Amino acid sequence: MLRAGSKISAFGYIVKIVRRVGNQHMEFPPLTDRVPTRFQPGSNVQRSRHSPKRKKKGNILPSVAQARKTLHLVIENSSYRSQDLRDLLGRGTYPMGGGSAAKEHPVEYFSASLLAAVVNYPLWRASALGQSGFRVVLQSANYPPILANVASSVPPALAPYFYAFSPPYKGLFATVMGMSWARAAIFYGSDTGKQYLLSAGFSQSVSTIVPPLVISTAVQCFNMPLVRATILLQNPESDVPNIRESLRQIYKSHGISGLWHGTSAGILKTVPKYCTAIFVKDYIERVLPPVDPNSDHKHRDALIHSAIKSSAAGVAGAALTNPLDVIRNEMFKTNLGLVDAIRSLHNELGWNFLVRGMSKNLIAVSIPVASTIFFTDAFIQYTNSRKGY
Q1: What whole-number percentage of the chain has pLDDT above 70?
Q2: Cα separation of 102 and 342, whole Å?
Q3: pLDDT band at 60, cuts 50/70/90?
Q4: C-alpha span between 245 and 248 (Å, rounded)
Q5: Torsions phi, psi for 63 (to 5 deg)
Q6: Tens digit of pLDDT for each residue in 25-45?
């Protein structure tokens, strides 16, 4: 019990919290707008009106933001590994990069998604070609002189990759921007949603799965016309020049509903992929040993941890959803319904259709997801280091 008139320093307040959480899981007392010099009105311990008042020497007590920053440093320099201490901050869980709330880093999330989409655009083209069953025949006349000789000597097995990495890049801008906002919305929304649900008292599992489930479903429905138009645009035999003409052709052939054809397969593919990736990412993050804050290589070690969890998340998401990718692309190509597309694939390839394009998909899906997570961690770590976290 503190005596009347005693002060509570920011550091003392933080140490009390850390000790209480370390000994037993108790509620984290909410920080007020300023670390109080006395207990709030209504408490049974307050400054006596007869107690002498000390002269103020400026703002000697830190603001709540400064107190929280100090508490973050205490956490990072402690061996207490449970998420409970971080959850009790009142600011929810940490984002992928750690050290501050996810809602503070929307720019980092979008920048990471944009960079990943640009880097991985050729891999996405190769995956779309393989899973859609588009026939790739390289013709030297279609390439500039510098590539014409190479195109004529490329083995058939490598033709899709050569085509994917070579110009012209049909629908590049629309594809990259569509991927960027979609992944940014899913990862940013999942981290902030998890933060909100944990603060509302939901379990770790519910808080991890529900946000990507809801957000990825909404994103897939909104993005569906663009997804279908960009995939059909990659057909080497198509003479459609751009996204606008691709959308117009789909609308003329199949009406407005044709733009959302394949949504069911798209949701079945996209939602499990991101739910799996985010679940694995969070799980690996919890089980990895903490980075030593006193190490001279702590930033490098943090990036190594990020590379491990992002790789595991990307591979898990890609391997699980490859069959649904194949079904969705078959629906795009043939305009068949879900059941008819599965029957057509089975009649053509047997159950081998489940692994059609698997190698390309592991590259084209796992690398973008993994690089998005890794770039987000790196950008947030850089931002936090500049802020002194």
Answers
A1: 69
A2: 40
A3: very low
A4: 5
A5: -75, 170
A6: 444 444 444 444 444 444 444
Compute the distance between CA of residue 317 and CA of residue 370 in angstroms, rounded to an integer.
10
Q: Which two tokens stand for residue 350?
A: 């047997």
* 198 CB-side CA count, 13 A: 24
Kindly state the tokens that stand for 151. Answer: 């195109």
DSSP string, 51-118: SPPPPP-S--SPBHHHHHHHHHHHHHTS----HHHHHTTSS-S--TT-SS-GGG-HHHHHHHHHHHHH
> Could you give the CA distance from residue 96 to residue 93 in angstroms, rounded to a whole number?
9
List pLDDT tens digits, range 121-166.
888 888 788 767 777 777 665 666 667 677 777 777 777 778 888 7
Instruction: Report which secondary-structure segment, H or E, holds 122.
Output: helix 106-132
Would the pLDDT of 77 be above 70? no
Burial (CB < 10 A; 0-12, 13-18, 19+), residue 354, is: middle
Distances (CA, A) of 73 to 13, 86, 95, 285, 294: 14, 11, 16, 19, 12
CB 273 within 8 A of CB 317: yes
Mean pLDDT of 260-265: 82
Q: In whole angstroms, give the CA distance from residue 309 to residue 4.
A: 50
Closest CA to 127 of 355, 354, 324, 360: 360
* C-beta separation of 25 from 87 below 8 A: no
Cα angle, residue 263 at apex, residues 259 and 267 outer, rounded to 5°: 150
CB 180 within 8 A of CB 112: no
pLDDT of residue 133: 74
Distance CA 366, CA 307 (A): 12
For residue 2, give the nearest of 43, 45, 32, 31 by alpha carbon: 45
Q: What is the mean pLDDT of residues 306-314?
A: 92
3-state secondary structure of 291: coil
- 175-189, 245-259, 339-353: range with lowest mean pLDDT: 339-353
**Cα separation values, 215 from 95, 179, 221, 285, 312, Å:** 17, 14, 10, 22, 22
Q: How high is the mean pLDDT of the chain?
A: 75
Provide the greatest CA pair distance for the chain.
Answer: 95
Give the residue-averaged pLDDT of 268-292.
Answer: 87
